[in-house]
Amino acid sequence: MPLSSPYRHNQLRQLLQKLGLPSQVSVDWALLDLALTHPSMSAEMNSERLEFLGDAVLKLAAAQFLYRTYPTASEGTMSAFRDVLVSDRTLAQVGNSYGLERYLAMDNAAAGDAAGQESRVANAVEAVLAVLYMADPQLGLIRPWLEDHFRTMAIAIHQDPAQMNYKGALQELTQQRYQSLPTYRHRYPQKGAGQTFFVEVWVQDRCLGQGQGSSKKTAEQEAAQEAFLALQDQPSEGSEEHLEREGDRPPPDLPP
């Protein structure tokens, strides 16, 4: 529906009011309409470019929130928190709390794709963030509503650290310190042996963590958590020496 339609214009105003923004807020309405145009409606005039910008805006907003809210948190901890705050799951929860999908222009096939709902709404949130950022680069149209969601999620993470993306945080930490990526070594469940997966995570030929779980993903996260927590408080200077010291003690064997 073209923006010239009074109905569409009222729709977009209603959405911004749901976000708690002033009724006289100054935004590019045509751009906001584009942000809420799914690629299924047009291969050229859609939200994808705005999603690209919105992804960067989201990470900036999350980083600023964490920096201000947790003044003593390490870089690695903030990175792990940020990975959760900017995930599709979190964004979809944010978008769904405002009924964002009802404002999204898309064809019937996309609307009926239940499996794609999470990513669809998450992408729409990113595109809307891009429009609001261009209207106010100081994030004045973003912080008032988005940080409430960040705060709620941060509290939930404190109560349940398993929600943190330790794999992502560990990867970022090892890239910064050692210019290398962690390696995961798996022992898959054998036939008739139950459904428990065992995983070791290795960095620079040293085992830094182990995990187990009912799925490979769960086991990897547990192993990454152990390795991440072991590394995060160590200063980057001399970290290779620390790994050598750890290497003097062989890691315990994985469960049979």
Can you summarize this structure?
The chain has 256 residues and is mainly alpha-helical. Helices cover 55% and strands 8% of the residues.
Provide structural commentary:
- The chain is built from eleven helices and three strands; from the N terminus they run αααααααααβββαα.
- The protein is mostly helical and 256 residues long.
- It folds into two domains: 6-163, Orthogonal Bundle (Ribonuclease iii, N-terminal Endonuclease Domain, Chain A), CATH 1.10.1520.10; 178-247, 2-Layer Sandwich (Double Stranded RNA Binding Domain).
- It has a three-stranded antiparallel beta sheet.
- A hairpin with a 2-residue loop joins β2 and β3 (206-213).
Can you give keywords for this protein?
Double Stranded RNA Binding Domain; 55% helix; three-stranded antiparallel beta sheet; 11 helices; Ribonuclease iii, N-terminal Endonuclease Domain, Chain A; 3 strands; 2 domains; disordered C terminus; mainly alpha; elongated; 256 residues
CATH topology of the largest domain: Ribonuclease iii, N-terminal Endonuclease Domain, Chain A
Q: Beta-sheet strand percentage?
A: 5-15%
- Ends: how far apart? 61 Å
Q: How many β-strands, per DSSP?
A: 3
Provide the structure class.
Answer: mainly alpha
- Count of discrete structural domains: 2
CATH superfamily assignment of the largest domain?
Ribonuclease III domain
- The quaternary organization reads as single chain
Topology, element by element:
Elements: H1 6-18, H2 29-35, H3 48-69, H4 75-85, H5 88-97, H6 108-111, H7 117-135, H8 143-159, H9 166-178, E1 183-187, E2 197-203, E3 206-213, H10 216-232, H11 239-247
Helix pairs in contact: 3-4, 3-7, 4-9, 5-7, 9-10
